[in-house]
Amino acid sequence: MYDLGTGIESVVCDNPADQWNPAIDGNRVVWQDRRNGNWDIYLYDIGSGVETRITDDSGYQMYPAISGDRVVWEEYRNGNADIYMADLSPEIVPSRATVYLKAQVIGYNLPMNIEAGFTDKLDIAIAALAAGNEKMAVNNLNAVIKLARAQKGKSLSPGRAGELIAEAQMIIQNILL
Q1: Pair 46, 1: CB distance under 8 Å
Q2: Annotated domain spans of the chain
Q3: Distance separating alpha carbons of residues 117 and 20, to the nearest angstrom
Q4: Cβ neighbours around 164 below 10 Å, total
Q5: Helix then strand then coil, % of the chain, to nearest 5
Q6: What pLDDT score was predicted for residue 29?
Q7: What sign has the CA pseudo-torsion 107, 110, 115, 118?
Q8: Could you report the per-residue pLDDT of 114-166, keeping only the tens digit for each?
Q9: Which of 32, 43, 42, 34 is CA-nearest to residue 16?
Q10: How far apart are CA 105 and CA 160, in angstroms?
Q11: Which residues contact 152 (CB under 8 A, 6 or more apart)?
Q12: What is the pLDDT of residue 95?
């Protein structure tokens, strides 16, 4: 990625496997990636610096495109080419937003014990949402907010702490709708 304003070039993905067919919309870059032995679709959020695997099917997922919160790609899951889509809108499905929030936390490279504090609570929230236990999910997301406030200016920059808090609050609001 090349910043025209600063003249600084930076790598979006430095995995040694092949990465092809990048596409960008706003702060999100998608591409097909062969790091897992077959082609999968990955996304990089320029604003947060978080990389997320979008697909994990054993078939080939190729030729991604992105527009807003939607990613589309060609997939050979059924022996022929089909078109699939992922909607990245966190307000659509709280469980998907919680998984994305966990990926953000992992991308922050926090000290192991701090990261585990966040991911353990997010794993419980994800499992609770899958089981239909919204109260448990909300309680664990509130615990994530509390931990983010406690780590603000310590293990987390104020900006990242604010992002985590805002994301967790948005997920809670969507659960309670």
Answers
A1: yes
A2: 19-87, 94-176
A3: 35
A4: 23
A5: 40, 25, 35
A6: 95
A7: negative
A8: 999 999 999 999 889 888 899 999 999 999 999 999 999 999 988 888 889 88
A9: 34
A10: 9
A11: 158, 161, 162
A12: 74
Contacts of 34 (CB under 8 A, 6+ apart): 17, 18, 19, 40
The CA-atom distances, in angstroms, between 40 and each of 35, 63, 78, 90 are 8, 10, 15, 21
Residue pair 22/12 in contact by the 8 Å Cβ criterion: yes
Contact present, 39 and 33 (Cβ < 8 Å):
yes
How far apart are the C-alpha atoms of 128 and 80, rounded to whole Å?
A: 36
Q: How many residues in total does the chain contain?
A: 177
